Amino acid sequence: MDIIFLRELKVDMLIGVYEWEKRVPQTLQIDLEIALPSSRACETDDINDALDYSEIVRHIQTVLTSRHFNLLEALAEHISRIILDDFKAPWVKVSVAKLQAIRGSKMVGICVERGSR
Prior knowledge:
Layout: E1 3-13, E2 26-35, H1 40-44, H2 53-64, H3 72-86, E3 91-99, E4 107-115
Helix pairs in contact: 2-3
């Protein structure tokens, strides 16, 4: 299985259950591992046979800046559905973390895996 990955994508968005979190954007860090539908791009060297990670990032950023999520869990699930449904990946691992949300901790977050490996 061929997997593309994206590390430490930073996105500012509204997320959280507290009233201040619904008004003040927070910086999240997103890490993705995405299984390719096929290994054809390795043979053809053609972007049309690959997943365009810039398109994936653009799509995720558009969705995340246009709505509010209460929980990181729901956000991670939403991102995984985008990758599986819109980009036809067979498997995805999504990690989402709030940076410096807990005093003394660099980040707190969740990791979900969806699809078949």
